[in-house]
Amino acid sequence: MRKLFIAAVAALTLSASAAQAAGGAYVPELKDVNWSFEGFFGQYDQKQLRRGFQIYNEVCSACHSLRLVAYRNLSALGFTEDEIKEIAAEKSIRLPHGDAGALLNDDGEFFTREAKPSDKFVSPFPNDAAAIDANGALPPDLSLVAKSRLGGPEYLYSFLMGYMDEVPEEVAHQKGFILNEDKSFNIYFPGYYTSMPPQMMDELVEYEDGTEATAVQHAEDIVAFLNWAAEPELDERKSLGLKVMLFLLVLTAMLYALKRKIWADVKH
């Protein structure tokens, strides 16, 4: 009870701090999604993770990096060794120099090699300056984004589905609000304006498994994949937790039976 009380106080404090940092800005309640990995018995849907990876690979990877995930980790999504090699080989890694120590090859280009399964996901830009120059702002790395945002997967889903063509009255009338027509309005984004335009739309990609390609489906799939990227051990951790609970229940029953046996002939 003491730990629960401390956790509750900490959560309320963080919520109050977040609201204060936002300056009392209007933020609607996050959208609720029934994730397959929620709850004590929740597990990742491997088919959904593969669809989410397809969205990242075909859409998100053009701007966002995934620096903490290696291509070989895709085996957890059901990809074979040959499929992973093929996926990795689509990307090139820039080398510092060639065999002779030259910085550029005969064509005046940087030396590169095909990515391998052991490599981390190749970033779309050579450095942060190039990323900012191409996007107007630095696209965040998505490796831990599902854990680093308050609200986790619910926030990511709400953000992806929170773009609006018009500013609602609750925001337009609040003190200090400034209209910015050069960026996209998102009701869930801190400050409301983001450099990333809306991404979720029907038929954004053509799913390989035949799933209906709606904007909602796309958003759920990519968020599930990003949650896996941030917490790939979730299934194993829950499985281990269940085994530990079962062991403790059996052990408790055995100890109780032993106690009854030892004290059976003792009069109370």
Automatic annotation (TrEMBL):
Residues 1-21 form the signal peptide. Binds 1 heme c group covalently per subunit. The chain crosses the membrane at residues 240-258. Its cofactor is heme c. It is found in: Membrane. GO terms for molecular function: electron transfer activity; heme binding; metal ion binding. Heme c binds at residues 60, 63-64, 196. Keywords: Electron transport, Heme, Iron, Membrane, Metal-binding, Respiratory chain, Signal, Transmembrane, Transmembrane helix, Transport. Residues 47-212 form the Cytochrome c domain. InterPro entries: Cyt_c-like_dom, Cyt_c-like_dom_sf, Cyt_c1, Cyt_c1_TM_anchor_C. It comes from the Bacteria. GO terms for cellular component: membrane. The keyword Metal-binding applies. Belongs to the cytochrome c family. This is Cytochrome c1. It comes from Terasakiella brassicae.
